[in-house]
Amino acid sequence: MYFQDFDKIYYSFDINGKTETRIVTDITKNVRIRKQILSNITLFDEYTITDGETPESIAELVYGRADYHWAVMLSNDMYDYLNDFPLPMRTMEKVIADKYGEDNVNDIHHYEAVIHGTSYVVDEDAPNSVPITNSDYEYTVNESKRNIKLISPLLIEQVANELGNLV
Q1: What distance in Å separates the CA atoms of residue 28 and residue 86, rounded to the nearest whole number?
Q2: Strand 18-25 and strand 130-133: pairing?
Q3: How far apart are the C-alpha atoms of 143 and 35, rounded to whole Å?
């Protein structure tokens, strides 16, 4: 849906040492929802992503159309399906073990201290510093991706039409 109205261009590829020209979608055209619109919370509903949900499954649930997955991603400044969307907990265990090594998942990643209700990264010897393990850190980053904004179902058709007019 998102790319269907984009212009088509001829593009030459080197395939096995032979140049072949194909018609492809011009993905250099880039449509983003303006920051001003994104900051207008009256247009959005809050949503918490659960394990196993994808942009397509959320779009199907909320809008009744899986092909509106682009709305889930764009309204949250998400452009990389693998890195911007939260991973399921089971997958996180493997990602953490692969990233740090199985023997290092509980090693200290950094220290934090809460000052006036806000957590800050601090030195180990700072007052009230608390060690944050590699595992704790990665789970916190992953969990921070779960709360998203969704364009109100009442407005999604209008937004889709307006974005279609931009391409």
Answers
A1: 27
A2: unpaired
A3: 23
Q: Are 153 and 143 in contact (CB under 8 A)?
A: no
Lowest-confidence pick of 54-63, 108-117, 155-164: 155-164
Task: Report the C-alpha gap between 108 and 4 in whole angstroms.
Answer: 47
Q: Residue 59's pLDDT is what?
A: 96
Residues 141-164 have a mean pLDDT of 87
Largest CA distance in the chain: 65
Q: What is the C-alpha to C-alpha distance for residues 111 and 121, in angstroms, rounded to an integer?
A: 6
Q: Is there a contact between 87 and 145 (Cβ–Cβ < 8 Å)?
A: no
- How far is 138 from 21, CA to CA, in rounded Å? 43
Residue with tokens 């983003």: 32
- pLDDT beyond 90 at 65: yes
Question: What letter represents residue 155's amino acid?
Answer: L
Q: d(Cα 14, Cα 18) in Å, to the nearest integer? A: 5
- Residue 35: is its pLDDT beyond 60? no
Q: What angle do CA 108, 87, 104 make, to 5 degrees?
A: 25
Distance CA 122, CA 138 (A): 18
| Euclidean distance between CA atoms 28 and 45, whole angstroms | 30
